Amino acid sequence: MIEIKKLTKQADNKLILRGVDLHIEKGETVAILGPNGAGKSTLLKVLATLIKPTSGQVLINGMELKKNQVEIKKLLGYLPHSSLLYDHYSPLENLVFFGNIYGVRVVEQKAIQLVKEVGLSFFLNEPVKNFSRGMIQRIAIARAIVHDPAVLLLDEPHTGLDQGAISILNNVILSMKEKGATTLMVTHDFKQAAEICDRVIIVKNGKIVDDFKIENRNLGYVSEKYELQMEAVS
Ligand SMILES: Nc1ncnc2c1ncn2[C@@H]1O[C@H](COP(=O)(O)OP(=O)(O)OP(=O)(O)O)[C@@H](O)[C@H]1O
């Protein structure tokens, strides 16, 4: 589904990604862990076609990223740090707007269903500018999946969410997985990674330093593997 070969990214004379090789199967839910500044968001931005890699190759669904940006963008649902929502629009208006960009059919119905799914039906027609950070994040998640993307790219999706909203988000991710979606999630939240991901990738200094499967939601195993990499000299 996603094939990354010898990927590098340089900016301002700094090598941010230093040769990333990664293969992700369709339907996998993968957590990307790593310390601040490791290059996690940069990797996600390259996959989201927002920044160009310096060298290397990325294939999504067999299509080369460099040559098929328009086709690939249709497959992607990207949740960045900023919500990308229009402040003065309501959740309904925002989702209809973004749904129309992606050519979603029966878009209003889809928007209403998603707002319900993220638990904000009561605020369907309120301008987003009046929302709390957690409420905005819920609508941002709905925006990212309005077109039922085959690939979900989530950058710290649990940040700012209360326990109820975390459950809602995890259910959204799991229901996307049931529909066959592939998810890559940058996170500092090991608990959530262990809860919903099948696999963990640890990024350090622009490189993948560990890559392992998680079984039985074993949070202790994830923490141990992480600590081991942080202690290692690289
Ligand atoms: N456009 C850019 N120009 C120069 N340096 C950049 C650019 N984008 C990112 N960087 C640097 O690259 C490094 C990796 O950034 P990135 O945002 O990918 O890290 P991250 O692993 O997501 O970190 P965090 O956990 O803090 O979000 C950082 O040192 C950052 O300052």
UniProtKB/TrEMBL annotation:
Q: Which family does it belong to?
A: Belongs to the ABC transporter superfamily.
What's a GO biological-process term for it?
A: cytochrome complex assembly
Ranges for domain ABC transporter: 2-230
| CDD domains for this protein | ABC_DR_subfamily_A
- What keywords are annotated for this sequence in UniProt? ATP-binding, Cytochrome c-type biogenesis, Nucleotide-binding, Transport
Q: What is the lineage of its organism?
A: Bacteria, Bacillati, Bacillota, Bacilli, Bacillales
> Native species of this protein?
Neobacillus bataviensis LMG 21833
**The organism sits in which domain of life?**
Bacteria
Protein name according to UniProt: Heme exporter protein CcmA
Gene Ontology molecular function, alphabetical: ATP binding; ATP hydrolysis activity; transmembrane transporter activity
Nucleotide-binding as a keyword of this entry, yes or no, is: yes
